[in-house]
Amino acid sequence: VAYVGKLDDGTQFDAAKRFDFTLGAGDVIKGWDIGIAGMRVGGKRKLTVPSKLGYGKKGSSPDIPPNATLHFTVTLKEIR
Questions:
Q1: Would you state the pLDDT for residue 28?
Q2: Disulfide check for 64: which of 15, 36, 60, 74 has CB 3.0–4.6 Å away?
Q3: What's the whole-model pTM score?
Q4: DSSP per residue over 1-68, as a string?
């Protein structure tokens, strides 16, 4: 996938032109496993991931605060 991740205030905390992972294997946050399932190659989705499906009460220091809702624009590049 290619993606951009932002916080509620629009601050970008992460981005990648290529990120590989195994869907459903726990490699990524639960919100991605749920939100990316069913996508087709070339498809683009906007995911709004609530804290409980993201990094929860702990956040991910230093860029993602506790209890943050995360916003991603994701493009599925390929399936292997």
A1: 96
A2: 60
A3: 0.93
A4: -EEEEE-TTS-EEEEES-----TTTTSS-HHHHHHHTT--TT-EEEEEE-GGGTTTTT-BTTTB-TT-
Is 72 a catalytic site residue?
yes
Residues in the chain where the model's pLDDT stays below 50: none
| Active site annotation includes 19 | no
Strands 12-16 and 44-49: unpaired
The strands making up 70-75's β-sheet, listed across from edge to edge, are 12-16, 2-6, 70-75, 44-49
Q: Annotated catalytic, 21? A: no
Catalytic-role residue among 14, 33, 34, 63: 14
Q: Which residue among the candidates 13, 19, 33, 63 is catalytic per the annotation? A: 13
**From 8, 27, 72, 79, the catalytic residue:** 72
The pLDDT of residue 19 is 95
